[in-house]
Specification:
The protein has 21 helices and 24 strands. By secondary structure, the protein is an alpha+beta fold.
Length: about 625
């Protein structure tokens, strides 16, 4: 990747912890309970005010889905259901967006106008998301370099998807719909994968400094816009883990460079667009007796097997463009999304998957496949197969140009997959139900007086107040933990060093042991710290409790303690264990006397670890050892 010129920008979406939603008085609280009621809608596609249709909206509309909405009476009202106009904008959320804009030196608009952004994937009941431009320009400093901020917007969050297993509809829950979000979009000033992480960290810390932001997985989401020289702008949505950003950028650079290499190879082979002809060929009879489970299941259900020749693509469909992903995977992604099929087979991976060499040769003969050619094969209902083959064919044609512009979704391993076409300029239009909000110089002057301290000042203060070692304090800072650290210390009263060590060393150690620490929320950590403060567990049990929470994130503290066998020991129960250990090692005690304390302490701690404090164990052991020696 050395020497590769890239352009990269970030869009950070931070959920605000306001009392009410952005355009109604419902609380900003998510619910896990079963819904009180459900309703279903279908969304229609409309042209914009300038008579254009947004390509991303068209893509979602053509799926032909219905949307099932789950509602709770205590956090959903007629506004979310699109049965009532929006109320006035939440002033608390607007104030937070204005404060953030002042913190980065942005130019704030004179009037805030609410716009509608077309979104018809079902995540907004109305078919659009309300968003407002708050400021333009501004910058942040990252390692001595200025990173430009293009826009700061205030918008409503979307509904959260709960189910899409059923063919024909998708389920959403409306509790999240309408929660205020601050959206921060940077200029494409980022020049390396690690710098992308540093920029996201800096913006995240500034947002945290506001105080009223929601925390935990899913409350801050990063979108990346990446292109390499000669490539195309790719938007990658939904990056939730800060440490994953460098890997995603690196692998997207790899993907684009690989696609450019494939384009160049196709040029060397003199493959032109007119050489790629959409003429699917029915090969059902060839595969009728196939031993492939996928093929057999589809054909037994009345499906067909259609194949399509791709002239000049031999050996390229199997070329790796990201770890575990090939050009054939890109074609398969398009086939899945447009055709609703499970995937496709391509000639670079065949014979395989139960399809024999003889069957492959027969398909090649029927298609007229020559040395440098390839073919793709899809088995499903005829309607689905035709749509899927057409989508894969269109993606193959795009390979002649190199990198197609598109929106992609981030995978947990840092790779990405096709999500939808990139939206066009026809998706925004004015919201007619909400009046513009005037921002006066007096408003801004008042807000300037109450801006939060910069993150660096917070870091300096915490080091001084809590006597934290510099390296530990910077580790908390770089992991966006400085604000939670202070809250945990004030809430629980535990030693700052213990909390800081847990947030840095302990969690890192658990990650090395392949414990899924990404499942740990601040609620899990606070519950664990409070359990130590309340004497329910000893501090030695923290790694055990966090391990159980990571493996069972929906469990309560009581369930976790029971699973880990960490019910609190009484002093009398401890004495019984100590006496038993002394009795088991009576020969050692009689020979070494008090010098046997170290060995006995190790044995006792092994049996009681986490169920009672080590200092109490030491005190009881000394008492019982003294009795044993004098008896």
């Amino acid at each position: 990747m050395q020497g590769v010129k890239i352009k990269c920008g970030l869009e950070i979406h931070q959920m605000l912890d306001t009392a009410e939603k952005l355009f109604c008085s419902c609380p900003t609280r998510l619910t896990q309970d079963p819904p009180h009621f459900v309703f279903t809608r279908r969304l229609r596609l409309a042209k914009s005010e300038i008579g254009e249709i947004d390509p991303a909206a068209l893509f979602e509309y053509e799926k032909g889905l219905a949307y099932r909405y789950e509602c709770h009476r205590d956090n959903v009202c007629l506004v979310e259901m699109d049965e009532e106009p929006p109320h006035n904008m939440n002033s608390e959320a607007l104030e937070l967006a204005l404060k953030f804009s002042l913190m980065i030196g942005a130019s704030i608009v004179d009037e805030v106008h609410v716009m509608r952004k077309i979104v018809i994937d079902g995540s907004n009941v109305s078919g659009f998301q309300r968003t407002s431009l708050i400021s333009l320009g501004g910058s942040i400093d990252v390692n001595g370099k200025k990173i430009g901020i293009q826009t700061v917007c205030l918008e409503e969050d979307a509904a959260r998807k709960t189910e899409e297993k059923h063919e024909g509809y998708v389920s959403y829950r409306l509790d999240r719909l309408g929660i205020p979000l601050i959206e921060v979009a940077t200029a494409p000033d980022i020049e390396s994968p690690e710098e992308a992480r540093e920029v996201a960290l800096r913006i995240g810390l500034l947002l945290r400094a506001l105080g009223k932001v929601k925390r935990g997985l899913g409350t801050i989401r990063q979108d990346l816009n990446i292109s390499v020289e000669g490539g195309a702008r790719i938007e990658i949505k939904g990056v939730q883990y800060l440490d994953l950003i460098p890997k995603i950028v690196e692998l997207e650079i790899q993907r684009q460079l690989s696609l450019l290499d494939i384009r160049d190879e196709l040029k060397r082979r003199n493959v032109k667009e007119e050489d790629l002809v959409f003429e699917p060929v029915d090969v059902t009879d060839i595969l009728r007796s196939s031993q492939s489970k996928v093929v057999k299941k589809a054909l037994d259900s009345g499906g067909v097997a259609l194949a399509l020749k791709l002239k000049g693509f031999g050996g390229l469909l199997g070329r790796e463009i990201q770890p575990g992903r090939r050009l054939g995977t890109e074609l398969a992604d398009r086939a899945r999304y447009w055709g609703g099929v499970g995937g496709l087979f391509h000639s670079d991976e065949l014979p395989g998957y139960g399809i024999t060499k003889d069957e492959v040769e027969k398909i090649k003969t029927r298609l007229g496949v020559e040395a440098n050619d390839a073919f793709i094969l899809i088995v499903d209902s005829r309607e689905k197969v035709m749509r899927a083959l057409k989508a894969a064919y269109e993606r193959a044609k795009e390979a002649l140009e190199g990198v197609p512009e598109e929106t992609r979704a981030a995978n947990l391993d840092g790779t990405t997959k096709f999500m939808r076409p990139r939206p066009g300029s026809a998706r925004m239009y004015p919201e007619t139900d909400i009046r513009p909000i005037r921002i006066t110089p007096e408003n801004l002057e008042e807000l300037r007086k109450n801006l939060p301290e910069p993150p660096e000042k917070t870091l300096e203060r915490l080091m001084k107040e809590y006597s934290l070692p510099k390296d530990m304090a910077f580790q908390l800072f770089s992991q966006q933990q400085i604000y939670f650290f202070e809250e945990a210390v004030k809430t629980t009263g535990l030693a700052p060093q213990l909390i800081a060590t847990t947030l840095t060393n302990t969690i890192v150690s658990l990650r090395r042991d392949n414990i899924p620490v990404e499942n740990l929320t601040e609620e899990h950590l606070l519950a664990t710290f409070k359990a130590v403060a309340d004497g329910k567990i000893a501090k030695e049990a923290i790694p055990v409790v966090l391990t159980e929470f990571a493996k069972n994130p929906d469990a309560s503290l009581e369930e976790v303690l029971k699973r880990a066998g960490l019910e609190r020991l009484t002093i009398e129960e401890l004495r019984e264990i100590v006496r038993k250990v002394i009795q088991e090692n009576r020969e050692d005690v009689s020979q070494k006397g008090e010098k046997s304390f170290g060995k006995l302490m190790g044995i006792v701690m092994e049996r009681v670890r986490g169920r009672i404090d080590g200092a109490v164990v030491a005190q009881v052991l000394r008492e019982e050892l003294k009795k044993a020696i004098s008896s």
